[in-house]
Write a structure and sequence with these properties.
Elements (H helix, E strand, L loop, with lengths): L8 H8 L4 H23 L2 H17 L9 H19 L6 H15 L1 H16 L3 H11 L5 H8 L3 H20 L1 H16 L1
Helix pairs in contact: 1-2, 2-3, 2-4, 3-4, 4-5, 4-10, 5-6, 6-9, 6-10, 7-9, 8-9
Amino acid sequence: MSNCSTYTDDQLWQQITQDDQEAFTAVYNRYWKVLYLRAQHMLTDSDLAQDIVQEVFISLWHRRKEVEVLHLKAYLFQAVRFQELKALRNLKSDINFYERLALISKDLLIHEPLAFKELDTVLQRVLASFPEDQRMIFGMSREEGLTYREIAGKMEISVKTVEKKMSQALRALRKGMDSAFPLVLSMMALLENSQN
């Protein structure tokens, strides 16, 4: 296949299914950067983003005879989203868990509203289980963007108490959301299979 860079995604995919490494390289060169930038933006971790993109392409090559890909670009973006969710689940103890969850949730809302609805239902249930003071502190921090010092001033409690309540809230949130990820991942896989 000469000058693969001028071929359409469909033409390249057909060649890839026939074990054409040059076509695979052309697809990699066409999409690796945009996939990497997306994953890096969602996960804020360059190494992890690079690993995810590499894993998606490795999987694509290994599964080239098994999967039916109708829209290559959509397939690649869906595969990266799926890997991001898996990575988020594995990183749930990270200090930026809530921020990462918010980014993934926004992406789900746009691209997979059913998965977002399920994730949001679990999130609301977890938040509703918090004691009232913890729920208020969490809301002031995450929804109003107040600092721990500002929250302490408003509630007339110590900054240490705010830190403790936020730590408890985030721990409960991680634990509660952990139960939702297998279902969301399953939904993502079903959506991926139905789109390809």
